[in-house]
Each structure stands twice: as structure tokens, then as C-alpha cells.
Amino acid sequence: MLTRLLNRSYTHPSQPVALRLPALSPTQKITVVVGLIYLGLFLFIFRDVIVSIPAIWRGEVVINGDELVPFFNPHSQLIDQAAGKFNQLTNGYEFRVRYSFLTTWMRYYKVLPLAILFVIPSVVFVGYWSVAGFLSKVFPQFDARDVYILTAAPVLMIFMVMIYSKITHFYTLVLGFSLFLVATLAMSSGLIFPQKRPYVPIIAACLITLLNPAVHYLILFALFMSMAVATLTFLDVYDVIRLGYWRIPFQWRRYPEFIRFLWYEWRRLLVENRFLRTMIAFALLGVMTLAPYGAFVKFVALRGVPNLAETVPGDYYFIQDASIPLGHMLAFDLAGIMDKLRTGDYLARVPRWPNVSYMILMFLPLLWGRVRRGLAVNKALWAFLYAAFTTTLFSMWATLGYSGAAWVPTFHRTMAYISNIANDSQSVIGDLVVKLMATIVQVLRFPHRFELIMLMMACVLLPMSYLWVHKALLDKLPVGWVRLRRYLPVLMAVLFFVPFFSNAPYRTVFPSGNFGGFLTPYPVDPLKEVKENLLKLPPGKVVVLPPTETAKAIVDINGVEHKFIDKFHIYYLDLPSFYYGLTGDSDNKHEFFLMLRAMYYEQGWWINVARDLDIKYIVINKELVANTVGGQEYLREVERIIIPELDRRDAYLTELFQNESYALYEFTDLPKADRVPLYIDTDWNTFLQVVSRNLELTRYYDLRYPMVASDLAEYDQLALLTDDPASSWLNLYIKDNRERYFRPDGTILPFNPNIISSSYYLSPMFRLFQFFSDSKYNRLNMITPGLWGTISGGFIGLPRATQFRVNVTLPEDGEYRLMMRGAAVANTLDMSADFLPEPRQVRLQSDPNNLAIYDKETVFTTNRVAIDADDYTFAELERLIPSDAVAINFQYQFFDLGKIEGPAGKYTIYFDKLDNAPMLLEGIVAVPEEVYQEQAWPDTVQIVTKDDLCCGVLVQETEAVP
Questions:
Q1: Residues 589, 765: contact at Cβ < 8 Å?
Q2: Would you say 591 and 702 are in contact if contact means Cβ atoms under 8 Å apart?
């Protein structure tokens, strides 16, 4: 044995050594060729990225586009966030970085170009390799070589649709799509197709899904599995009925035989019985995937995030915006960034109709029995086709959302119909139904995500149909046409892209070399100079203005246009700042809204807000220009307003540095000692007067607002400026007793267009400016100062008659006073609850100093005069608004809903708003009647007036203030 091994291992020195690789099979050769074609194709598509790599590594330019934000410090911008720490750069929690930390490293600015060049073709190749291997295994009637050739084009086409739309998140969404496809094929193989070890691919699918960097695919995979298992279970039940197996339980004499079979053959039963496999697979998915990922999200990804629903809302109008019309879906149009950059809308304005040919090809087996019979040559393939098309059709149905005509019974409209009926029933069962429907929507969120299931199934169904077409053509071709028969698969693969490139946007973007300009590197030398100057200065918070996270464009020093968000500046400068865009902290958005609102209207009181935020340095971005491609633009002309506004405030700011792209200012009038906490609880106009008449106010006072809960957590002495002491007492009571303040129940929000959630206007923050207008975008039918004056950072608008509910908890038996916080024009509500002996009707109308009504023609003029509401009945006011008059809310107030008495426990208060006059509702507080009657003020609170401020007795009493 040893001699033979030595003879095989060594040769005579005079003989040349030949290195022999194992021979590749025909399909392996095809796979290698396809992989090289993919790589070469994407290197061509991203050829400008290759050219820019040396400059990127030298730090001269960086690839940055919209939400494709590179990071520059792995510690502060990745590792700390993966550990769940508070991010000083954004002054918040980066939950998006946390849940995708496995692949976020690809955004490191030196790695990003390489990831674009090699990760994208790699994930496309993995998807192709998986589909080709799966199809060659389960379709024995087709030549494996034809399968590997004809699969290449359809899979590539679907991934090109994904890349075109999701290039900003390729490291999660495109990569995750590939993993989603692989996991689905593995799960389908284990569930449907007979094999010795079916649980190996099932477990592999669960693990692949667990490691998917995009949380959407976790939910979508669970949904696919649910639909597939439901279909397979239906088929199994049908077989049980058809074959008469349902009689077995009634044949009691066969019980001993059946028990012996289970005892000796249970292992084989678990492998061969499809119903048991599906049940076990479901259990494995729950144990191996959903449970650990749920724990990760709860304890890591969302740790410290107070209310995800406000950051990423899910109400009726968000669902409507995320709905995909049928025409776009049939054309494989996916909402994405390239259409947004090109047209101003996330969805192509006109469907790419040539792509409908792919949809016809995909559904060929469903539409034509001959194709169906040619593909499904065994029972397992029939089951796979049923499961595949059931899942695809459901995803298309769910993708429609609220698009199209109102009478179309889409998935979301069906859920809304059921939910609204259940909600109106005001019963325990109805409440459970509403909660169930709301939970489904909250988990699945936006309709456009369902389209990803359709696209994933298209990667499998398109090659299947194409294989049948190829076989049908071969059968028609004369036998003598050998050359054409040999090269027909290659010819079909090339021709497959004719409809795709019939679309002008694809022809423009993919051959351009820089992805239609999106990947054109941004020169950072001007910004680098700013950073170098900042690092020489004493530390302090830095903000870059104007905000770029609007429909604005950046024109760099080379005259090239870019679109990116504010996080780019924050990450590049790597200094403490604030992020107030999408996913930003709501407190940041509230205070930055105040600051930007003052700047935008050229009112100097922004100085007080900026000082209160402890902003040390302001960087002015001179490259910002107005939107050039359409789309809704917020803060119009702000780029021409802010720089002159800063220059006018030279008593408070000093310009330190300026180059062709940026200017750096230092705030020279920051507080130098501890300040007195000043809680401003007034209407909007009084607040403007207070902060406007003395721009040194925040040198002495630390401003506190109703909505920021942490502001009043601890204080030794609190100065309270109020124009309604009774309301302020209730506000302080709420802050000290959060468990007794109850916001409206949000379960009906995804289904009721008559309830407007303020969170829709909070993300991004700049939509809050719509509340100052009477345009169609302000769906409240009421002008209100955004989140100013709210105590919980949000509210619901009720512009029409509707039903809503508030869930309250009485901590102990006794009498309570219910006070509703909101703004009312002239509203009548029916109110019912278990603690009320009979329904109660309440009539609400805000005080004239809190809410005024103006003629629509003069509402924005300086000489406007409020309408005397006492001259009109409730019904007349309802008819006036919004066609002839405009209601303006200046301050929220409390409405007395009366005294109630009941035992401790949880209750639901049902409200039926009977009118179409607008109303805003924040919440309800339940105050023990004795406490309400006493209304004792804490010893630490001192009520002041506007004349006491700056710099009266209060300031002089504090030795810390100079």
C-alpha cells in the first residue's frame, strides 16, 4: 500500500509534472461561462466606478447617492450601533444599522466601490445557480444544459429590475432578495419533492432566512411559507377526501394495525408524509428563525427606540402611497430610487408596457393547459405549480393596496372592509378582529413589499415557461437544421432582453457607466477642508444647512448634479450632530422644525432655538440648488434664504472659513453657565412673541416644551410660562403620571381614511410645513403648528364624521375626571363605555383664543379678521369649512368629558364623531376626582409672565448665571 502511494505521489525528476484538474461537466462549464458573463456585464455597467477607485482610496472623491450613504468611521458609525449604543452623531438610535449590521460594512467608503463591482454580480450569480440547479433537478424532461442556458437571462432580468430600483440598498435589499430566492427554493425542495433527507434543505432555508440582512424578507418568507403550506394542505385534504382516507378513523378494527405502523414506521412517515413535513417545517421556521430574530429586534435593533410607529408609520395614507397599480405591476415596475431621481416619483409615471410580455410568459402555464401538462409531468410538480401560482397571485393581489378604483376588492380594501365593520360593532369579537387585521398590516406594512414575492417567483416561473417554449420550437424545427437547434438556447437567451431594453430608462441607465449619473463620485476636497478646520477648533455640535433631505439637488465643483441625504455630512464630519430626516428621532425633528421654520421665514428667533440645542458650529452648503426633475419640493428657495439670514446675525455668529462649496460659522453666544429651566406652555403666537422679542433669552433659560417627556423628568426649580394655568396643571400631571394618559387607539389607522395620523407628516420632518398651509396635502382641513404644543409628540386628525376609540385603564376603584386634549371647531361626539350607564353626547368647541376661523380669501393676509363663531351654529360652521373658511389651531386645550365612576380595570371608550367639521385629538387623561378638584401645584414650579423673563428676578436668584 505504501509503495503504491509513493509511486503515485512522486515522479522521476526528469519527467514533467502535470497538474490535472477534474474535468467539468457540461452544466458546470455553462455555469462558469454564465458567471463570467455576469461579471463582465456588471463591470461594464459600473465601469466608471472602476475608474474612480484610486481617487476614492486617496480620499479625493466618494460614491454617495441618496440613501446609499457611505460611512467613514467603523467604530462610531457601525460597531457602536451594532452594539446598541446611542449615536451622538445623529443624536438618536440607528436601528437600521443595527438590524443590517452583517452587511452594512459594505458601505465603508473604501469598500463600497468593490462591493458594487463584485457583490452585485455575485448575488445575481448565486440566484441563477440556485434556480438552474433546482429546475434541472425537478424537471427531468428538459436537458440540463438547456436549463442552465435558458435560466440565465430571466434571472438576470429580474435582478436588473431590482438593481435599477434598489441600488441604494443593494447590500440589504438586492443581496437579501438573492437569499430570499435561495431559501424559497430550498424550502420548496424539502416540502414538495421526494428525497431521503428533506429536512436538510428545510433547515438550510430557515438558517439562510435568519441571516438575511433585510428584515422585509424574513416576513415575506414567512408569508410565502404560509401560502405554500396552505396550498399543499388543501391538496392533501383533497386527496384524503378523494381517495377515501377519511374513513380510516371510523374503522376501529384497524386501530392496532395503525398503532403498530406508527410505532415502527414513524421515521419514514416523517420523511415521506408531506403534511407532516409542512407542519414540522413551520415549527422549525418559528423556532430557528422567527423567535431568535424577534428577540434580536426587540432587545438589540429597537433598544432605546421609543416609538417605531412614529418613525416608520403605517396608516391609511402611507399604505396608499406604497400601493402599486395593476398596470405597473404587470410591467414589473418596482418603486425605486432611479425613477425618483429621473422623474421625481418613486414609481414610473407610465408603466413600461413592453415588459408585459414577461408577465404573459410567466403565466403561460396557468393560461394554457398544454404548457401546464408539459411542465407538470409528476405529482410533485403539479403541487409545486399550484403552490407557486397561489403565492404569486396572492402577492399581486396584496401589492395593489389601495390603488385603482375604490370598488376593486384588493387585499387591503378587503381587510379594511372587515375591520371597519368589526370596529363599528363595538364588541369584544369585533375588537379582536380589528386587532388581528391591524397586526397583519403592522407586520407586513407596505403593499409594494409584496411585489418582491412576485419577482422572486418570476425568477423560477419565467425559466420554466421559457424551457417549454424552447422544447416546443425544437419539436417544430426540421431535424436537419443542426446548427440552429444547437444554438437556439443561446439565441433565445439574447432575444429575451428585447422587451427589457425597449424601455428608454433602462437603455439610459445601464449602458451609461455611472448608472445614469447616480454613481458619479462626489469630490470631497471642499468638505475635507471644512472638517480639517473643525478638528482644530474646540469640540461642539455641528449641523449642516440647508437640509439636503428634500427634493433638492447638489451641484459639485465639477458641475455634476447629485442627490443625497443629510446623513452623508454627519458621517463624513464624524462629529456630534442631529439627524432629523427619515428614521430620525422625533424630538430632533420637533426642535429642528422650529429652527428651520424661523430661518425659512427669516425670523431671528431661530437663534434662541439653535442656542438651546447647544449648536456650536453651522456649516452652510453652498452647492444646494432647487429641484431640477420635478416632484414635491419642501422649503422652496431655502438655499437662497439661509446664507443671507446667517450673515445678518453677525452679533451671534462668526464666519471662520469659506471655500467654493461651504462656509463654516461658529456660534459665539452660547450659554456659559447653568440655565434656569423654562417650561413654555403657551399658544403658538405667544411662543413666537417670547422667543422673538429677546434673542438672548436662551442664554439664561433652558427651554422646555410640552412634547419632550425627558425635559421635565428632573428639576429643582421650574419656571412655567403659561397663558392657561389650568391646562398647564393638567400637562404637568400627565408628565408625572404617564400611565394615566391615553392616546387614541391606532389599530384602525391602516383602514380608515377619515383618521389622519400626524406621523404621516413627521417622516420626513419637512412635511410638517404642510400643516401651515390649506393645500390639498394638509388632509386635516385645519392649519396647526405641527407638533408644537403636543404633549405626546403626535395626534390624529378627524376631518370627517367617523368612529374612533381610546383605551383607558383605571388604576383603582373610584371617581375620575376624563379630560380630552385636542382642538375642536364645532364637533358633536357620542361617547359610550362600560363605566357609563348610558351613552353620553358631548359638544366640543375650542376657545376663540386657542382656535380661530378665517375667511379663506384673507386667511394669509396681514389684515385678516377672525369670524365670530358665536354668530354661527355648529351645522353652519361645518358647511363653511374647508370650502369657504379655514380653521387655525394655535393651542391644544382640554375638554371636560365629565365625571365617571368604575372599578379598576381596562376599558374602551367608543366615540362616534357625527359631523364633518375638522377636529384634532391628542389623548385623554383620567384624573382622580379629588386630585382634579384640588389641583395643587408642586413646590418646585413657579409661574412667570413674559415680563419676568430675561433678565428679571428669576435669573438674579440663580448664582450660576453671569
A1: yes
A2: no
Please write the tens of the pLDDT for every residue from 99-151.
888 899 999 999 999 999 999 999 999 999 999 999 999 999 999 999 999 99
Residue pLDDT, tens place only, 707-716: 764 555 566 7
pTM of the model: 0.90
For residue 601, the number of C-alpha atoms closer than 13 Å in the C-beta half-sphere is: 12
Residue 351 φ/ψ region, left for φ over 0, alpha for ψ in the -120 to 50 degree band, beta for the rest: beta
- Between the CA of residue 405 and those of 348, 360, 748, what are the distances in Å? 19, 24, 21
pLDDT at 151: 97
How large is the average pLDDT for residues 363-367?
Answer: 94
Residue 700 in contact with residue 950, Cβ under 8 Å? Answer: yes
Q: What H or E segment, with its residue span, contains residue 470?
A: helix 451-476
Per-residue pLDDT, 960? 33
Coil, helix or strand at residue 678: strand
Q: What are the residues whose beta carbons fall under 8 Å from the beta carbon of 413, sequence distance 6 or more?
A: 402, 406
Q: Which helix (H) or strand (E) holds 187?
A: helix 175-192
**Distance (Å, rounded) from C-alpha 709 to C-alpha 739?**
13
pLDDT at 96: 79
The DSSP code for 941 is E
The span from the CA of 450 to the CA of 181, in Å, is: 14
Q: Residue 902: in which H helix or E strand, if any?
A: strand 893-902
CA 751 to chain centroid: 18
Per 3-state DSSP, what percentage of the chain is helix, strand, and coil (rounded to 5)?
50, 15, 35
- Distance separating the N- and C-terminal Cα atoms of the chain: 95
CB 939 within 8 Å of CB 908: no
Position 403: which residue type?
Answer: S
Q: Half-sphere exposure (CA, 13 Å, Cβ side) for 245?
A: 9
State the residue for C-alpha cell 404633549: 791
Residue closest to 900 by CA, chosen among 928, 936, 932, 933: 928
Whether 324 contacts 451, CB under 8 Å: yes
- Mean pLDDT (the chain, rounded): 88
Q: Say how far apart CA 209 and CA 227 lie, in whole Å.
A: 17
More confident residue, 302 or 846: 846
Whole-angstrom CA distances from 134 to 459, 633, 935 are: 11, 48, 73
- Please name every residue paired with 909 in a beta bridge, in sequence order, or none if there are none: 806
Query: Cα 307 to the chain's mean position, in Å?
Result: 14
Q: What pLDDT sits at residue 4?
A: 44
Q: Give the CA radius of gyration of the chain.
A: 32
Distance CA 581, CA 567 (A): 9
Is pLDDT above 50 for 1? Answer: no
